[in-house]
Amino acid sequence: MHIIIARGHIDLAKRDPNKTARNRRGKEITSELAKLWPQVSIDSGYDNQLSFNALIGGKAATFIDLKEKVIKSADEYISEYLSGFKKARERDGWTAGGTPFSATTLKSNFDTLTKTKATKQYFLLFLQRSFLRHYDELVRNRPSVADSEIWIGQNNSDYGILITPRFNATGEWENDKSEIRHFPKLYWTIGHLLTTGLVVQGDPDPITFASIDDYLSFFTKVLVRPSGSKYEREIAALYCSYVKSQEKPEDVPLLIPELRYRGKEKKHKYRLDFCVIDPVTLEKVGFELSPWSTHGHIASTAKKSQKEINAEALRNFEKEAGKLRDYFRKYRITTLIFTDEQLADTGKIFDEISTYLEGSTEATQLEFSLIEEFL
Q1: Which uninterrupted H or E stretch holds 11?
Q2: 136 and 177 Cβ atoms separated by less than 8 Å
Q3: CA distances from 104 to 15, 53, 93, 180 (A)
Q4: How many CA atoms lie within 13 A of 58 on its CB side?
């Protein structure tokens, strides 16, 4: 615990014991590496420690899928690194990120790193320290490339939510995939959107929001209102009140409106009324408001036979069921359906939605402080 003195009073600021323990162990490893270096320098033939470190650390992204792989321990990190190193050595002319690596060069590097007991020890300690230094990024669940962008809205009024948006040379928005794991905010939250804004294909200027209130106003007036559904407007209003009442409104998951099934394709097939993505587990749940008047009603029944009415009712049912199956198959979205009986009280519906808005705010942490205490 450290002391902060400001304006005549003393504030005891809490520290994360796990982070403190990780930092302490990282410093210990740095000290151990310094002690090993003189012998490692002799054994490896390297005069410069930074160059030797680069021989190890510079290949981490080559040997490990750091964009998507979730790694929970130093042992797992080392295992992934060594596995990737082995595969690379076995494939002559192997290429990663546009950089070719010959099997001969990689074998020579491996021989250098494992030449003696000292070089092996240094090699493994360096990888342990790398894991500790990048711990928060490595243990964090990250969206797959396919799940790292969301497109919402109706035809000719569609917007994209990306994690690390950049406007490419072809005039389209895309994610900078190498930076997704470094994104500083919780994924798919109010804070996420305030950081990235919304994007429109073909337009290099994102739509940004100066405050939470600015975004919530845009959410209700531009994103939700065009649907024409009074139920969606009521849910949206309750969501805005919920966000404003929270101690950390930036950490509240987005209530994503009009999620497009075909993403950024111009012609869409379906839209899901609302969706919430847990910022840590990345689990998705959808909410479909299905009043009979728009989802099941059959017009002009007096002019139709019972058989025709039944056939039309079946088509309506199959269409709705097919939509939800398709969202699950493509996006793994489990959808809750609210019909007229529930829609009579949108407050109760929002109470149910709000349980998913509580979300998860912290990634699973290894208890470094307890491990340290035990040892």
Answers
A1: strand 9-13
A2: no
A3: 47, 20, 9, 33
A4: 10
Cα torsion 83, 84, 88, 91: sign: positive
Taking a C-beta distance cutoff of 8 angstroms, is the pair 165, 199 a contact?
yes
pTM of the model: 0.69
- Any idea how long the chain is? 375
pLDDT digits (tens, 9 = 90+) for 92-149: 655 555 556 677 888 899 999 999 999 999 999 999 999 999 888 888 888 887 789 9
Question: What is the tens place of the pLDDT at every residue in 207-224?
Answer: 999 999 999 999 999 999
Q: Is the separation of the CB atoms in 78 and 127 below 8 Å?
A: yes
> Per the structure block, which two tokens stand in for 58?
């510079």
For residue 343, give the nearest of 291, 307, 305 by alpha carbon. Answer: 291
Rg (CA), the chain: 27
* 254-257: long-range pairs with CB below 8 Å, 24+: 254/161, 254/188, 254/189, 254/190, 254/192, 254/193, 255/219, 255/353, 255/357, 256/150, 256/152, 256/161, 256/188, 257/152, 257/153, 257/219, 257/223, 257/224, 257/227, 257/232
Amino acid at 37: W
Task: Convert the pLDDT of each residue in 15-40 to its tens digit.
Answer: 667 778 888 889 999 999 999 999 99
